Design the sequence.
């Protein structure tokens, strides 16, 4: 089995705050990330699929096809968006990097049909990233 | 003369739109950057100073001192902020990267007293950055 | 004056050899770069323009417009191409990184009309790059 | 068990096409990668070995020894080469990154004798890479 | 389960040599790393934890809390230090990157209480890094 | 004129302290950099030369030749060395990055004969670097 990874980029704004908490509780837990006027990041997203190379193409999956799926399912939904306000699937969810990566898995998984989805990695800054391997991991 | 450069980071949200224009004009010029719910970036800022190394220290300027100035004058003002709403000096200014870099020069210049401020570089994404060398350049 | 830089990528194959020389001379000067079956690189190209930000937009030049020019004038001509065989403007020229960067300047310069073209930087590997500032530099 | 990874570089030219297909089929599947005059990349290759540190040296394996093996077994065979024409072990194989990484495993595995070969990672561009953990993974 | 990774930096000096060996044996095995006047590196350390995001915060673990632990347990102990002389826990141990990563695990593990410590990665140069997953891996 | 830049690496140990000062003065100015047991860094050094491409080779200067000069004049002198103790030309000099870059210029300049030496850039960490353009800049 060989693992193939493709990277795409997007940037967005978000705010971390729990509406059931006081402002003080939000400040204590989320610090500057709770700023009510939003802040944002450049995100790198890496999708890894795994499988056996097809003898006719040498590919596990055509990387251009994977790029198209990532652009349509991730970039078009999140790029230059406000994760709290502009993304229906994130309504009512704290848009932490952890929760966003799980939602990205749900968007991508149905479209990986000729090999297996292995991992989604979401890089928030050069110092912080999260990885998700699906429900069964 | 030797040039010394120090990097710091911050992230913020902004929106590019001209209030004197129609929504269509804003969309045509600014595209996704005009999204009314904001978007954001991780920014890297590089400050370059120049001078002769001091024989007692070997330094043009103590890099820890430069870091302190950058944290106080740039990071505390812009980090996790909305450039359109949270930054008094940018009120009424289109917060393009070009205009932000010129404002950063104004904040930094008065504090570089033992050598010369040479350049401010502001990196918006891995594909776009701006540089400013002051009025006389 | 503010300087704005935009990056694009392409990859291609080339071979460095001087047809007026013997194989030995070519090997001595160009080493592995003279391999008759070609070799290749991922190239990063950075275009820098300079000017005053337009008060209506905050831009020296719209970075999306600059990206379009770079894709049309550089990427479409060089990406996944053989620089010795597939690029009419490089016919009869040794496709060294130095000569390619000068050709890129010729392609880009006529399309920078609202501000000034300042520099083209072409990165061949993480260890080697060239920069060109035009005829007058 | 500790995992040790060493990186080396090489660059080469290749072409992706299936000789049993028409030109149209090749274009449809491989796009620009089928260009008959070749294209190329800078590749980064990472070899990961695992084991217990030797109490006399603190090493799983001497990283300088690993570098020597990688230079001899990978770099000398692939650097500045045409993967379709210059590499006997890739003759008749589609030189996709997936197939090249499997061949690199075959070259490296016999020389890792004092600890275990764990993974080969081959980075084709900043946006695409593959990983291989051997037959049993 | 989601995996969260945080990076911190430090730099230090060390020397690799085995006091039970002759100078010749040390030179043969450790080469320039045995230089009796020390050498040093900039290190990047990545700590990965895993768990289920807390529904109240969206976090596996607050990344700011993880940063605080890493600064206190790793950076304060190793930054601008001589690993052979200044670090009590490394006395009598060959301060190879492999042995340092295992010591870092011992410092960090007791402080990860609300989720699980998964991996410590220690990057010595852009070409060499080690990873450790604990005793049970 | 075209500018060509080549990168090389080395790592070393140093200590910043002024022997004419008290320990307190040294601590105040140099902080952790004054640690008497040394600390170290991975350094990247970039040498930039400028000139007109030679019509026979397409080169300003053969990058392999430049690499050889850099390895002999910089890497062999500084790699895995203690800058305070092992480098005769730095004896009695505070081995700040500023002073080291000026010394590197002196080593390199005599060997750039067919084009002009333009700049030496020395990167100490991902956050700090210095540049030197020679006496006349």
Sequence:
């Amino acid at each position: 089995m060989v693992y193939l990874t493709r990277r795409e980029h997007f940037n967005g704004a978000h705010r971390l705050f729990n509406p059931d908490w006081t402002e003080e509780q939000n400040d204590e837990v989320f610090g500057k990330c709770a700023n009510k006027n939003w802040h944002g990041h450049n995100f790198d997203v890496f999708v890894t699929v795994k499988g056996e190379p097809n003898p006719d193409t040498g590919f596990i999956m055509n990387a251009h096809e994977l790029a198209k799926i990532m652009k349509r399912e991730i970039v078009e939904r999140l790029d230059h968006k406000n994760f709290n306000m502009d993304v229906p699937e994130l309504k009512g969810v704290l848009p932490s990097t952890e929760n966003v990566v799980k939602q990205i898995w749900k968007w991508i998984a149905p479209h990986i049909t000729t090999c297996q989805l292995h991992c989604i990695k979401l890089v928030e800054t050069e110092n912080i990233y999260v990885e998700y391997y699906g429900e069964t991991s």
